[in-house]
Design goal:
Blueprint (H helix, E strand, L loop, with lengths): L1 H35 L12 H11 L2 E8 L7 E8 L8 E5 L10 H10 L2 E6 L17 H16 L6 E6 L1 H10 L5 E7 L5 H13 L7 H19 L13 H5 L5 E7 L11 H6 L5 E5 L11 H4 L1 H15 L9
Parallel strand pairs: 3-4, 3-5, 5-6, 6-7, 7-8
Antiparallel strand pairs: 1-2, 2-4
Helix pairs in contact: 1-7, 2-3, 4-5, 6-7
Length: 334
């Protein structure tokens, strides 16, 4: 009899603990769902847009703080920086895509290097990241349409050729880059830094780092938070298909539809997007792709990023990659 009571108490305790876990997971998911689709990053960016504009203006003749409309699905006024050494119509363009919580100004050294090599540069602040408008981020679902509009307005205003494009992306910006580049002709080179293959795995890790809770404790919370975030995006966009919106974001599937030459770069000490998160992307790469794992380096746009840890090698590899796969100027251009 005593043994039965002990088992009943144990079962009751387990049931109570399970219900408490479910309740806590649900409450946490409500709050964390907003975090997943906000423009808030793990570490605030300290880069300043005004300083980037000023430095570009000292380097080249054409620098414009360009504004354009975003996707008609969720109208927003979006901002981007355009710069060119001159005669943009005769030059290839490199598009720079920052990560969640980042900004255009983080690309200052890369944009300067690009214009010095003879490229045009387009450096947007992705939707939700000020000064761009937007109530939430969608990891490529809306952003690919935003970027298509950016290219159209840059073609009309500056004369650039959207069919001669390269992309350099960081972190979640790589997911945006792959969604945008999938099935799009004219993209000659993509340099993807700190990418990840599985959005759910990345969401669980992101919430673990953001909250300090172990990842295994957040398994249910993450699924609930992702589900709530996806549902909110569908409601805001008046989409009824449960697989649409965030549910369609799949970096590996998008990679299979990219035509340009690819280079994946990952710091071996990256704690924000651990290198193992890119394993499935690496396995899906075409034979001519490049994978560069940088010893001693961390996450892009952080103090220990590859660009700072191995500065000379990074600049050489970056320049060689883009010039070889996306010549800055057409043969015979002035």
């Amino acid at each position: 009899m005593r043994r039965k009571k002990t088992w009943r108490r144990l079962a009751l305790s387990l049931a109570t603990a399970g219900l408490a876990y479910l309740g806590a997971s649900y409450l946490a998911a409500r709050r964390l769902a907003r975090r997943l689709i906000s423009a808030q990053g793990l570490v605030p960016s300290t880069a300043r847009r005004e300083e980037m504009l000023a430095e570009l203006r000292r380097a080249v003749s054409i620098v414009v703080d360009h504004r354009h409309a975003g996707s008609p699905r969720a109208p927003a006024a979006l901002a981007a920086i355009f710069a060119s050494p001159g005669q943009p119509e005769g030059r290839a363009t490199i598009l720079f895509l920052h990560g969640k919580g980042g900004c255009s100004a983080e690309w200052r050294p890369d944009a300067l290097r690009a214009v010095q090599l003879g490229y045009n540069v387009l450096v947007p602040d992705l939707r939700g990241h000020r000064p761009s408008e937007g109530e939430f981020v969608t990891y490529g679902f809306l952003e690919r349409e935003d970027l298509a509009r950016l290219l159209e307005t840059a073609r009309d205003r500056f004369g650039i050729d959207p069919g001669r494009l390269g992309i350099h992306a960081c972190s979640a910006g790589c997911t945006v880059a792959l969604e945008f580049a999938a099935n799009r002709p004219g993209i000659g080179a993509l340099w993807l830094e700190s990418p990840y293959a599985d959005p759910l795995e990345m969401a669980r890790h992101y919430l673990s780092v953001a909250t300090g809770a172990p990842w295994w404790l957040l398994a249910m919370t993450t699924r609930l938070a992702v589900s709530r975030a996806a549902a909110k995006v569908r409601r805001e966009l008046h989409v009824t298909d449960p697989t649409a919106g965030l549910g369609r974001i799949d970096p590996v599937a998008a990679l299979s539809r990219v035509e340009g030459r690819l280079c994946l770069v990952h710091g071996e000490r990256d704690g924000l997007v651990p290198p193992r998160f890119a394993a499935r992307l690496e396995s899906a790469l075409p034979a001519n792709a490049i994978v560069w794992k940088v010893a001693g380096a961390g996450h892009c746009h952080h103090d220990d990023e590859a660009e700072k840890v191995v500065a000379e090698e990074y600049q050489r590899r970056w320049s060689d990659f883009f010039v070889a796969n996306l010549p800055p100027q057409l043969e015979g251009s002035p």
